[in-house]
Amino acid sequence: MALVLTWVANSLAIYAVAYLMRSVEVASLLDAFIAGAVLTLINAIVKPILVILTLPLTILTLGIFYFLVSAFCLWLASQLVSGFMLRGVFSTIIAAILVSLISAILTKALTRASK
Questions:
Q1: How far apart are alpha carbons 104 and 115 in whole angstroms?
Q2: Which end of the chain is more exposed for a tag (fewer CB within 10 A), N or C?
Q3: pTM: predicted TM-score of the whole model, two decimal places
């Protein structure tokens, strides 16, 4: 159930960030849900491996490198979903931060609502 809530939260967060930023494009709400599903799977499978592999850099930069790992995961999702596009490295990093924040808030709200 937690994976489904995360998927919905990621999807809505991607759609919201696409509305807020011109450099993030989502063709439709369906594409946002597909991108959310892909991002959820990437965050569940690929991101933990990347976090472990980049742990020395993350420690050396006092945690700032973690934002690049999140941005890479979002970029990877955009490469796998044709209706989801990101333009620019800096805007990808900002979009990843916004998606993470909005998704965390939505996941917390959805978890409370489902209880």
A1: 17
A2: C
A3: 0.94
Question: Cβ neighbours of residue 38 under 8 Å, at least 6 residues apart?
Answer: 77, 80, 81
d(CA 59, CA 21) in angstroms, rounded, equals: 30
- How confident is the model over 56-111, as pLDDT tens digits? 999 999 999 999 999 999 999 999 999 999 999 999 999 999 999 999 999 999 99
* Residues 79, 12: Cα–Cα separation, whole Å: 19
